[in-house]
Amino acid sequence: MTRRSIDRVPKKAAIHMVSAWAQRNSLVLGQAQVGEKSNEITAIPKLLSRLDLTGTVIAIDAMGCQKKITSQIVRQDADYILSLKGNQTKKAAESALDTLEAKWGKQYPTMIESWRSKWDNSSVFFKYPEPIRRIMYTTNANEAVPRQFRKSTKIKDVFPNKISLLKLLYVGIKNASRK
């Protein structure tokens, strides 16, 4: 997930960050700043190298589908999820995997073997209707809650107690879940 900060002070560039998000724990695991004249492709490997990825599955958008990045994920003993469009079917994905194997199977046999051995678990994704799959493969749902928290807390700088802040954040979660 990437974020840009907004700095209204003249002549100050916004900070562009790449974050690693643990979906199950709803927790940001780490962040790396994107260089001023660069993009996420250079920051993602730096962020990944700071994390213990052993046994995890990394879901990454199209920006992260670079040979260098996917190879690093595999070297760090993790798996990754290929980016699929919402209108694809299980049959189309199997065909894409066959094409991937034909092109890269000899060069990256471990990667193909990993996909084939986990295909039964991965392909369950296609049992869900397209709108549910879209939620699963995009970061929009992950970004909605932090965005709503920022909007909610921006209007009030000081809270009389911890409970008042928690109530405001609760309303933020409810608002995010409606979207």
How would you describe what is shown here?
- With 179 residues, the chain is α+β, with helices and mostly antiparallel strands.
- Among the domains are: 85-138; 141-178.
- 49% of the residues lie in helices and 13% in strands.
- It is built from seven helices and five strands.
- It has helices at residues 40-49, 67-75, 90-104, 109-122, 130-137, 140-154, 162-178; strands at residues 2-4, 16-22, 27-33, 57-59, 79-81.
- It has a three-stranded antiparallel beta sheet, covered by helices on one side.
- A hairpin with a 4-residue loop joins strand 2 and strand 3.
- The longest helix has 17 residues, at 162-178.
- The chain is globular and about 60 Å long.
- The model has no long low-confidence stretch (mean pLDDT 77).
